[in-house]
Amino acid sequence: MNTLARSMLRDAAEADDVVEEALLRIHRAAPDFRGERGLRTWTLRIVANLCRDHLRRRKFSAGPPEELSPLQQLGLSINPVADWDGAMDQKVLAEAVERAIGTLAADHREAVVMRYRLGLSEAEMSEALGVPAGTVKSRLSRAMVLLRDALKELGS
Asked: Per residue in 29-45, pLDDT tens?
């Protein structure tokens, strides 16, 4: 939950507030949870909806990543002693990818985070986002085109 909130809001304090609110809502709604859908997608849908509400309220503008390094945000680690040049290349690439993700619209960024950081399937994403599977595929496809273009611009 925290990964999704931090990636969407790009502010640790706001993400913590959203996760706290989500946990309260989950606790209140738990007696009505019938298990027809997965618990993970149900909770992620609550978090995603709360994040969208936050973004609408503050007229979101993607800022710099929070205190996590770009490598930590992408789930990458490096060993600079063993492969210093490769590690530096990996770090530069991870930072470029993070900047490119920051330029995406909220719905595209949300799709990228859910798929590639949280590892959700398209079906799980569809359920968590409350949109048809075709919309999920479309958002992912468009996001990848935008990321590719952004990375080409950063490289030139």
From this structure: 888 887 777 888 888 88
Domain count, the chain: 1
Spell out the residues 6+ positions from residue 45 whose beta carbon is closer than 8 angstroms to its own: 127, 128, 129, 130
The CATH number of whichever domain residue 91 belongs to comes to 1.10.10.10
Which residues make Cβ contacts (< 8 Å) with residue 60, sequence separation at least 6?
Answer: 9, 54, 106
Query: Residue 92's domain spans which residues?
Result: 2-155
DSSP letters along 13-53, please?
A: HHHHHHHHHHHHHHHHHGGG--SSS-HHHHHHHHHHHHHHH
Q: At 70, which amino acid appears?
A: P
Tens of pLDDT, residues 129-153:
899 999 999 999 999 999 888 888 7
pTM score: 0.60
